[in-house]
Amino acid sequence: MFPFRHILFPTDFSAHAHAALKYAAGFARANGGRVLLLNVQDAKVPANLMTLPVHIFEDQENHWLLNLRAQAKELLTDPLLMGVEAETLFVDGDPAAQIARVAFEHEIDLITVVTRDRNRLSRAFGGSIAEEIVAEAPCAVLAIRPPQRDFVEHRGGHTQIRLNRVLLATNFRPSSAAATQLATSISNHLGAELHAVYVIGDYFDQISSIFPEGGLAALTRFRSHVQERMTQLSRGFGSKATTHIAEGRPYQEIVKLAANLDADLIVIGTAVHGSLFGSNQVLGSEIERVIRNSPCPVLCVPGARVVTPLPALVTQVV
Predict the structure, then answer these.
(1) Does residue 169 sit in helix, strand or coil?
(2) What would the mean pLDDT of 156-168 be, rounded to a whole number?
(3) In terms of pLDDT, which residue wins out, 95 or 218?
(4) What are φ and ψ of residue 118, in 5° steps?
(5) How far apart are CA 85 and CA 249, in angstroms?
């Protein structure tokens, strides 16, 4: 799973999307890998677009293809990609589905994407494309939301990955097993501090207020169980690992701890479920909120997929 060598960089050639290129190029350069620049269109693009003769574009209907090729060529000459093996690929269809398909077919290790702030309407009726990519992806996805704490530095043709602190958000479920392994591997490989957090959801307080005796007793037992599991987890991490237990709204506690630690990266398992309004995959609300509010990039690692007819009611502790 790590080091990441085969990196997928989906782009619409905008300045906003470009923010993820530094991470894609940084991991590829550090590990002798490659970057696949992917553009998804809603119309068919010739597979040999980059090598088509110029006269093909004289037809007015093909002017958009000429502009697309020019954007791709400009991106390939970006200083961030200097000395990095890179190629372009054009496909058509639904962006998230096509990105997932390409990632699988090209044996991609990591996808780098930039998230956008969402307005009230988009929050009510669906996530951003970045969140759809995270839900569909067969591999790890690095979600970036500038401006954030940045752990890749590029100067004078040199790129350095500076990861000092990694925060793993765990829930002890199968959905976080792969994230735990990847966070451990990254920390060991790059010499970063590893912190792990488990958040006891605030719904336990609600149970205790309704059932004072049973609720409090259950919460006490659960706190003891979590402490024991975190102790076991710490033993498996090694000397550089620190564990944290918090209580409250999961995404708020994760984001707050990341800020307090000056974490460079949050690693989280991304269990997903089927959308109530279709067959596409969607993330749990807590994971979405971590991605949208994190003070640093979030590495989303695919885990278990939950089957439920009412995904809007799923509130897994992450």
Answers:
(1) strand
(2) 88
(3) 95
(4) -110, 145
(5) 43
* pTM as predicted: 0.87
State the amino acid at position 147 in one-letter form.
P
Give 66-75 pLDDT, tens digit per residue: 899 999 999 9
| Rounded (to 5) percent helix, strand, coil in the chain | 45, 25, 30
Are 12 and 39 contacting, i.e. CB atoms less than 8 angstroms apart?
Answer: yes
Tokens of residue 273, six digits: 């479920």
For the chain, give the mean pLDDT: 84
Tens-place pLDDT, residues 285-304:
889 999 999 999 999 999 85
User: What CATH number does domain 1-154 carry, 3.40.50.620, 2.40.160.50, 1.10.260.40, 3.50.50.60?
Assistant: 3.40.50.620
What architecture is domain 163-318? 3-Layer(aba) Sandwich (3.40)
**Joined tokens for residue 294:** 């994190």
Distance CA 6, CA 22 (A): 14
